[in-house]
Batch of 2 targets.
Target 1
Amino acid sequence: MAFKDNREYIKALDAAGELVTINQEVDWDLEAGAIVRKVCEEQGPSPLMNRIKDYPGHRYLGAPISTYKKLAICLGLDPNSSIPQIATEYLKRTNRPPVKPVLVDKKQAPCKENILLGKDADLFMLPAPMVHDGDGGRYLATWHFVVTKDPDNGDVNWGMYRQMCYDSYTMTGPLLPFSDGGKVFHGKYKPRGLPMPFATVIGPDPLSAIAACAPSPIPESDYTGMLMGKPVELVKCETVDLEVPAHAEIVIEGEILPDVSLEEAPFGEYTGYRTSPRDLRTCYRVKAITFRNDPITTISNMGVPTDEGQLLRSFSLCLEMDALLRSQGIPITGAFMWPESTHHLVVIGVKPIYSNIAAQIAQLVFGSKLGPWFHMVVVVDDQTDIYNYNEVIHALTTKCHPQKGIHIYEGAGTPLYPFLSYEERLKMAGPKVVFDCTFPIDWDPLSEVPRLVSFKTVYPKEIQDKVLANWEKYGFKAR
Amino acid sequence: MMLHYDVFVNSLADLPEDKELQLALRDLTPGKYKYCYKNVKALVSPDPKKYEQGLQVRFGRGQIHPAPYSIKVLEQVERIPERWR
């Protein structure tokens, strides 16, 4: 099953006990952000806020997909599904043929229930929250995507690029040059002096939002169809030649100006810090706003783990790495990122059949388009469960040689890395490291390779079976 | 003191007293338009009583400077060229 909009998804969250409905008035100025932040840090249910100060008729949904439970619900799975089960279902859907979107008439598009054009399209008519105290402004777009189009080949991109309300008709935000949308803007529109049309989609259905986060080369609208198992319904914009999901809550249309930059940030970011300096950034000029009746603005509150950016980027980045490495014939067992690493660290399991396989893995993933988003690769052997934190930490601290097993690389990185100096951020420096947690394959297995001492490895099978069969009789609780 | 605007700076040296400055201010008037940006030419002072309006100063990562300034807005400035408005 696939939810056609966030409203159906909210009902499913409620049914699973993953929603809290707040009917008392909530202030858009910090209170809503603080609620969502605490929910993220406690990995709690999503808050649906039905009354917002100064904005009657508007609502908020906070922390929409901030846990694996909610991700499972998005995919129509049992909320208690394990991470490998969720990954298996996700891969099953995203390995089928792309599903092209369908265009629907404006009358069938709830996002057209209200249309504001020209001077009526005032951003401050929308309840952009002040997410964190000290942010550079009110961020309307924290869980959303920005639709843009390549002027030469017509390729459409959906990307999640934060946007801050600057004044009534202007938003600002970083459109990083290595992002898909950034490549087209900085590489094509800007050098030609042309404005880039955009449409910001706030409160899309959950699978469209997940597709916008995924670093897949497949167009995001097709990718959404693959995840949904049916085409996503799109509708034409009012003032720009772009299409947006018909069931979205709010759509903001306009142009990204090629020759104007205005102040943006600071902002609490996915790394858990305010890192990127306040600076002159991309300028989005608004021409139209369309929205549903009683619209629901989605709020993601970036900060210390876990928010949906950390969770979904971790999830989709490692699945793309998994596909990349398998396509190159590398005998991996899988790839996994803990969201708590803010998608900076990936654990890759491999059957080490030849020397320096960890270096080959690192060079492949660092050199791919995924590379700028993470900087630590931990390569473990196929005896280590990549999803098991205890096993991975044990492998890292016992198998990685401090002099021979750690290799440093130069690369491209995001200026949001908290450990970079200001100069490094400006240069988008991306120092990277691989931790090789495999024993050298030329070690003699009898005389040189240490033997793992665990219940599973040092007791005969019949003893293991006997102990397990008697576990509760001994007086232990069943696990 | 009532704070009418705030401004982000890298250091207090960015706010020399009584010198005409071009600033991106945020309007702190309560209500829907709170935090809307205004680009202005203005005079500022670390003396909170020198000018009629209060100015909150913040630094690059959002930290608040504990002592409010005062400000006199001379004129608004439009930074977006006419062709894009």
Target 2
Amino acid sequence: MIEDFIKNIEAEFEDLEPGKLKPESNFREAFEWNSINALILIALIKTEYNVSINAEDIQKSKTVNDIFTIVKSRM
Amino acid sequence: MAIFSIPGIRLAGIAAAVPRKEVSNYDYKWVSVKDREMIVKTVGVEKRRVAEPGTSTSDLCYTAAEKLIADLNWDKKEIELLIFISQSRDFIIPSTSGIIQDRLGLPHSCVAYDIGLGCSGWVYGISAIASMMSATRIKKALLLVGDISTLTASYRDKSTYPLFGDAATATAFELNADAAPIHFNLESDGSGYEAIIIPDGGLRNFISKKSFDYKKHGTGIYRTRFQLALNGIEVFNFALREVVPNAKKLMQEMQKTTVDFDYFVMHQANLLMNETIRKMMKIEKEKTPYSIREFGNTSSASIPLTIVHKLREQISTRKVQLLTSGFGVGLSWGSVAIELDKVVCPEVIEF
């Protein structure tokens, strides 16, 4: 469920206002994207879903939903 | 899969030496104040020890070894094996091990050689030293492991500069029929060799004028080809993929679980990576000591430095079961399960 995915992200990134992040949100804008945030997202996806995503996956994704689609396809 | 155990070898003592000079990542002016806070909080490195120019890894190893030999009250004539493991040797030619053998005043009958490994160095080194002692019956041996990484990190590379600190260690081993066996699970995957690399300076890309040109590799990332390049995401994924199965497989072979170990000591890669591995291993925070906040990622020295810094009192007064995992440059990784029973362990030495 993408709602759970968003909840997990909100729990991990304290600066994020709850309810602000939507499936169609551009995560690079929502997060003040940097390489450390990328690692936090990778760690979250690995621990919560036991799925590995790489730099290329992140590069070709734009929205939260794009990332979640990749995660779902590997679960 | 290289899973094996070696009986009859006792870890007699551990010492660690670090440069006196301390720098704080709060003062790292190449990045914004917010980024500095994020480095401290997420990467987990607040302070790092930095060697002065001219100081080499062997200086730190020598300092740690001298103190350890004195505290052990060992006769130097009996030390007939010395292995030096590092990615930051004194010279391209010759090996560093001989230089330290001579400086320590060890006999000519001492076998001395280098092994080129980084983050997995201590774990691999114990396997090399214990195997050789077991086969040769050499009675006393020194494993010298450490790195000076700050010299080859670019100040204008935020992906490496705030991460690394300098440190070196000495670990002493002796033949002892009553010692508990040491258990290993060691693995390698050279297909990832470019993930952590200094591209120029070896024979593949011999040093040239171009080796010193600064190039941009991303926002806040400028470095030369004679400086360390780190593919953070690739290393991160590698560690999350390999370390937990490696350590679990070792425990399974030993018919043990995490409850049988007093502490899980990991290579201090970065706090986020280590904490993710710890959670995947389902090991309590109290059983997972860190030195990364005070010393940064100290490459090959990080496991023994963490043991000396955080477990000194425990290992010198009682029997402690340790599970340790080293992982990184190579790519090379492995775990070792080892019992430390009232070993000699001086406080971290400043050089």
